Amino acid sequence: MTVLDLAQAPARPPLTRLALVELRKMTDTRAGRWLLAIIALVAVATVVVFMSVRPADEQSAGQLFALSQIGVGLLLPVVGILAVTGEWSQRTALTTFALVPQRLRVLTAKLLAAVVLATGFVLLGLALGVLGRALGGVLGVSSGDWDLPVRAVASMLLVEIATVLIGVAFGALLMNTPVAIVLYFVLPTVWTTVGSMVKALRSASAWLDTNRAFEPLTGDTPASGVEWARAGTAVAVWMVVPLVIGAYRLMRREVK
Amino acid sequence: MIEVERLTKRYGPATVVEDVSFVCRPGTVTGFLGPNGAGKSTTMRMLCGLTPATSGTATVLGVPFTSLPNPGRHVGVLLDASAQHAGRTGRETLALTARILGVPAARADEMLDTVGLAGKAAGRRVGDYSLGMRQRLGIAQALIGDPSVLVLDEPANGLDPEGIYWMRTLLRDFADRGGAVLLSSHLLHEVEAVADTLVVIAGGRVVASGTKSKLLAPSGRTFVRALDPAALYSALVGAGLPVVRREPPADGGGEAFVVEAQGEAVGRAAAASGVVLLELRQASGGGLEELFLTLTGRQTGPATTPSVPQEALR
């Protein structure tokens, strides 16, 4: 009997290649393309609407950039969710894990691809901020400053990355598209509502509500240590926990 | 080379695959046969590391599937042709696989050409493909890494007769070039034409395995029908000829019998008792066909004597 010499066998695909493949999988289906196009359109539309209705002195490049990310932060997690749940709803997991049996490498590749995608949309936002301000200047509707502080951009990037990764984590935990999407949107709202109604939860909510915890990070003033700790706690609860449980489920689950 | 040893899968109290062992050698096509729900797909998924086995081992080229650094370069797997993203084109599906495997992107178009999906079909979304086209795409995906082993679950499903003939030729060529093919089906005649070795599974257990020529060899049995079945039966018993099965009456004649004896002996026994024979011929098919029909529940009538010669088939 001939046993395959593993040292001579073709090498396993590097993680960067798997991440690029996952990025391509997010963009090569009709549904995926539409979703990304809509997110980009929402970003552009938000900037355009703001420019046409607000006073000129409010229209700084930084403000336009921040505005462009509202829709991105809302919708991009859906891309993250679909990247994971699509494997089960479309049953492509059967091929994916037959080609790459190390399932956690696939999950890692999806996380990396989501980070690249989030970064891409932040870059798009920067371009929109600068272009919007320039165009506004030419049209005489914008007179705000051109400043794009590194701190604000970096914080926004972190928030966007955390947000899309929470999406991936929800998808990994629930492995079901409608359930993951509904819970992703409903749970934080429920939490915010309950947190504001129940006195005892109000202080906890500041730590666990991503909407509240992430807000100071993208504000005009640098976030304090406590504010960073709150954001970190929210990320741990909404991203790390579901991701760990999801990874565990993925390792053990039967692919069929 | 595929080696499956005592593979078992239990879901709670239910045993879906029990103690399944077989070997699929280079240069051969192994037909993995069994009725729907016999455990074929579960066995194949365990082989590919997609379903954890309760016990037993499975290796490909001497190592567990999941230990292969880049499995697609050694094993072409097609477990379900419909398990493709409906929104992706055929070409893109293959391009992604080529990328993961690290083979040139041109392999995708090459494979589309091989399976007859080149041109317009390649640019269509898989959701718009017929089942036959998805099977072809799945086979292209299995072949793209130039593997030496193929694992195909019901690849003939949805293929038209021409497609089935094409696939047989392709698999035969693959095996003749030294490849090992494991091919499952719930239809005996589908794999009969291409397989060298057969493994029959039912209720999660291997009920027959061996070379096709051995399993499908004509039996030494005789089918006999007389005007008076009772008289024939006494004559057969009187002559010491074992009746292995009764066949229901057909075409106005009486009950018929399948006898473990040559035609001449049966004829002589009937003649000696003066029984008028209506039919006397070699019992159709080999033991495997009978066994398979029994398993798939398509036998025309109930067998009064349990006659499946399992030991003989092993």
TrEMBL record, chain A:
Highest taxon of source: Bacteria
Protein's UniProt keywords contain DNA-binding: no
Membrane spanning residue stretches: 34-53, 65-84, 111-132, 152-174, 181-208, 228-251
Keyword terms of this UniProt record: Membrane, Transmembrane, Transmembrane helix
Keyword Transmembrane helix appears in the UniProt entry: yes
Protein name, UniProt field: ABC transporter permease
Provenance organism: Actinomadura harenae
From TrEMBL, chain B:
Extent of the signal sequence: none
Keywords: ATP-binding, Nucleotide-binding, Transport
Chain ranges passing through the membrane: none
Residues in ABC transporter domain copies: 2-228
GO molecular function terms listed in the Swiss-Prot or TrEMBL record: ATP binding; ATP hydrolysis activity
Origin: domain of life: Bacteria
Homology family: Belongs to the ABC transporter superfamily.
Protein name: ATP-binding cassette domain-containing protein
Species per Swiss-Prot/TrEMBL record: Actinomadura harenae
